[in-house]
Design brief:
The chain is of the alpha/beta class and 276 residues long. Helix content is 38%, strand content 21%. A 5-stranded mixed β-sheet has the order 11-10-12-9-13. The chain is globular.
């Protein structure tokens, strides 16, 4: 908060290819569900400080997020990051405002179906972004899998097309989003196995309790407002995940996110009605 006071800028690290959470649109502008959460946090910081501040969005690769937070290059990271105890040693997490889990994108076979349970991953080439929970999940469930570290998601999808990997591990929502937007979707499928279930949250540097409280209040207010059916919270959620959105969710995935919201809200004191 002191840095924001001194600079007048809230610097948010985010992603350039985590559609629909944080990505670059056709005009090169960073947008997405997590970007909207960042804007809500910015507005809450402005309210606390009683002054306007600038929001500076910085695209980061997954393996840059922790170092940039620790060095102070960014004040907060909001993309598609999920909680792990290992990360918790170095940073703090806000409350979770979304839920996803590790799944696999594979090429469809012409006849029959391949097995993609944990045992079947032994010896298979599984692509994953370095430093992600997806990489960690596959290593944990099958140490004998051949993990192929991928620079970014575009390279992961291309490696799968070129048969350089047998499957690409990523968050299920992100894989579903890619599948909905790609040509020749019938050539690919998402394995139904959910190898992990994770809450999506923003990350902040350790020992910044005031800033963390401000961010949490903004996220809790959003989720409470959405669950109460209040505008513009419903519009914000549906812009990304509604039936007419850029990424319509399956009923199962939508309920998974909403159930997570209910759990978070139930554990906290309600935001006053006049704040919604």
């Amino acid at each position: 908060m002191e840095k924001v006071v001194n600079t007048g800028v809230l610097t948010v690290g985010t992603s350039k290819d985590a559609f629909p959470f944080a990505y670059k649109d056709k005009n090169g502008r960073l947008t997405g569900y997590s970007i909207d959460m960042s804007i809500l946090i910015q507005k809450q910081v402005e309210k606390e400080l009683k002054r306007s501040i600038k929001l500076d969005l910085i695209p980061l690769d997954p393996n840059e997020r922790m170092p940039k937070l620790r060095s102070g290059a960014v004040d907060i990271v909001c993309d598609a990051a999920s909680f792990t105890w290992e990360r918790e040693r170095d940073v703090d997490f806000t409350v979770s405002y979304g839920t996803t889990g590790t799944q696999l994108l594979t090429r469809q076979v012409k006849q029959g179906k391949r097995s993609w349970d944990a045992a079947a991953l032994s010896g298979r080439r599984i692509g994953a972004l370095s430093g992600t929970t997806n990489e960690q999940s596959i290593r944990r469930i099958q140490p004998k899998a051949q993990i192929v570290l991928i620079k970014d998601r575009a390279a992961g999808y291309q490696s799968l097309r070129e048969n350089k990997i047998d499957a690409f591990a990523d968050d299920g929502i992100l894989l579903e989003a890619w599948l909905q937007r790609t040509a020749n979707t019938q050539k690919f499928e998402i394995v139904s196995n959910l190898f992990s279930k994770e809450g999506i949250a923003c990350m902040v540097p350790e020992n910044n309790s005031t800033f963390l409280d401000v961010a949490n209040y903004a996220l809790i207010r959003f989720m409470q407002g959405f669950l109460k059916g209040k505008q513009p919270y419903v519009q914000t959620f549906d812009r990304w995940f509604g039936s007419q959105s850029v990424m319509p969710l399956s009923n199962d995935l939508r309920e998974l996110i909403i159930d997570n919201m209910r759990l978070v809200i139930d554990a906290k004191q309600e935001v006053p009605e006049n704040e919604l």
